[in-house]
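Quick one: structure tokens for this chain, please?
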Amino acid sequence: MPFFTVILPLYNKEKFVENTLKSILNQTFTNYEVLIVNDCSTDESVEIIKPFLSESIKLLEHPENKGLSASRNTGIKKAEANYITFLDADDLWKPTFLETIYQLITDFPEAKIFGTNYEEVYSNKIATPTNFPVGTALKNSQIMDFFKYNLGQGIYNHGSVCFHKSVYEKAGLYDETIDFSEDIDFNIRANYYFKLAYSHTIQMQYFMETGAQLTRSSILKKRLPDYDKYDTFANGNNTVAKYLAFERYVLAKHIKTDGGYELYKKISSKIDYKYLNWKQKILLKLPAFILKLIKKYKEILIKKGLKFTSY
């Protein structure tokens, strides 16, 4: 039985998928299987990966396009390993990613979630995210409180994390009824029930200009997560309460920017403002047209590899 199952969701990534797959095959830790889940690609993606298929690299086909969450769930249901990890078909692993995760599993047996830091790749720059507050005492690897430290840019993303199968048995699979912030929705459930072991070493490259990351489609056309169902998690847990306030802030600001004022009012009314900083409170009160200008300016800066946040 393989130690890891690597799930690679695939939809129209013909320009990137070969390099992504090679970054998996170049791992220093080699006891793994790869499940490529094709979600009805209409380009040459499948033809490109066919020469790589083998007993340990398998192609799973969806009969119809179902979205990212469904692709992940398909892979999870077919996984042979107890430890499951993911890589999107336009991102890359460092050669020691799986080795680092294996070491976390060995060093922290009390954990069931294992994550690493990552770097963001722009057209002209590689940047390390500022995802921990200044002054945070960091060890090379340690047990981390996800809700305490994830109040800004993610400390891991879904290409730099691994879950034990028991996480899915307890927390459930990815919600296929939403197609915005599905990672966040799952992370809330997973990290509420299980401990996270974390390595601060950079083991993954997240490409910021491959299309999806810079999408301009309105959030109002998306199926959004319902954070209200996690309010019971916050009872008596200050770090979870603060995290939910932060995620509601992010969602409300995004909705207001796209012109969904009534939905903005509904979500912002659920925010406990004592958990927001002064910048976040000001941004929430700004008119939509100013938020749009700020968003456009930030997009220009992102293309230059610069990022400013309210975190």
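The radius of gyration is 19 Å.
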